[in-house]
Amino acid sequence: MKKLSDLQGSFELHNGVQMPYLGLGVYLSKDGEEVINAVKEALNQGYRHIDTAAIYENEEGVGEGIRQSNVPREDVFLVSKVWNTDQGYEATLKAFEASLNRLGTDYLDLYLIHWPKGDLSKDTWRALERLYREKRVRAIGVSNFLKHHLEDLLDTAEIVPMVNQMEFHPYLVQQELMDFCSSHQIQYEAWSPLMQGNIFDLDIMKDMAAKYNKTIAQIVLRWDLQKGVVTIPKSSKKERIKANSELFDFTLSDEDVKLLDSLDKGKRFGPDPDNFDF
Q1: CA pair distance 31, 51, nearest whole angstrom
Q2: Catalytic: which of 21, 47, 56, 132?
Q3: Are strands 77-82 and 163-167 parallel, antiparallel or unpaired?
Q4: Number of domains, the chain
Q5: So where's the catalytic machinery, residue-wise (predicted)?
Q6: Which residue, among 201, 196, 198, 194, has the nearest Cα to 223 in the 3D structure?
Q7: Which of 41, 51, 85, 165 could form a disulfide with 143 if both were Cys (CB 3.0 to 4.6 A apart)?
Q8: Percentage of the residues of the chain whose pLDDT score is greater than 90
Q9: Is 5 part of any domain?
């Protein structure tokens, strides 16, 4: 198990950059007051990692939330992603500038390719490599890349992705993909860790929450971290943002980690990286 300390603890990426292992996701948080308040609240509670994307259409609010918080920009690990319609070398460079403008910052801590688009993503990756070399971004990576997508990218990549952000929860562990990423020092990261709310219906989760006197969300998020997976639970509610960060006063037993692993069904609640139409 990687060492876990507190809310501001981090995992080290293969280029030496420290990535806070718990962050706030803002997918479906409305631009304006909702996302501004969520980001400001999270940062003021101690979070240091905010994950957005061009397609979320809330980068302006994320930037404003950072500015309104008590936390300097350089202490925030800020992530965005290039959307599919902006993939390709020149288009990606333009999309990156547009994201920076909306966020009101002059660099990102991590920039990801949002979805694999075959050979087009190789051109996108060349643009990310350029941005990285120019120090416009501190780390680069991918999202929703399965093993064959990664192998294809690595055929021509000069820089190995630092991160792969995947749908990850007890029903979708993808251990083989995790092992492949680990062997290439690609940090694994979870989106949709709570199975889009479906996790709360599982009796096994209710039993485990009672055993540890924690919420079901806290159990799952702690499991992520103990497996060495960065996680970014989304919430715009003050109480939930706080509860999602209270993961450092208990440890799941090895048996319970394995028990959650054993729930794996290969079941997705989001799109399939091999079969999506956007």
Answers
A1: 14
A2: 56
A3: unpaired
A4: 1
A5: 56 (proton donor)
A6: 194
A7: 165
A8: 98
A9: no
Q: Is 1 a residue whose pLDDT tops 90?
A: no
Collapsing DSSP states into helix, strand and coil, what is residue 79?
strand
CATH number at residue 200: 3.20.20.100
| Nearest Cα to Cα of residue 240 among 5, 54, 29, 21 | 29
Q: Would you give the distance in Å from CA 266 to the centre of its chain?
A: 20
Beta-carbon contacts of 151 under 8 Å, excluding residues fewer than 6 positions away, are none
Neighbours of 31 (CB within 10 A): 17
3 pLDDT band, cuts 50/70/90, is: confident
pLDDT digits (tens, 9 = 90+) for 194-234: 999 999 999 999 999 999 999 999 999 999 999 999 999 99
Query: Which residue segment(s) compose the domain that 224 sits in?
Result: 10-261
Is 71 part of any domain? yes
State the virtual CA torsion across 168, 91, 65, 67 in degrees, nearest 10. Answer: 130
In this predicted model, what pLDDT tens digit does every residue of 225-273 receive, in sequence order?
999 999 999 999 999 999 999 999 999 999 999 999 999 999 999 999 9
Give the residue among 213, 174, 166 at the shortest CA–CA distance from 193: 166
**Strand ranges in the chain using DSSP code E only, listed in sequence order:** 10-12, 18-20, 24-25, 49-51, 77-82, 110-113, 140-143, 163-167, 187-191, 230-231
In a domain, 188, yes or no: yes
In a domain, residue 123? The reply is yes
Per 3-state DSSP, what percentage of the chain is helix, strand, and coil (rounded to 5)?
A: 45, 15, 40
Check if 56 is active-site: yes
**Residue 2: is its pLDDT beyond 80?**
no
Residue 221 · residue 244 · CB < 8 Å: yes
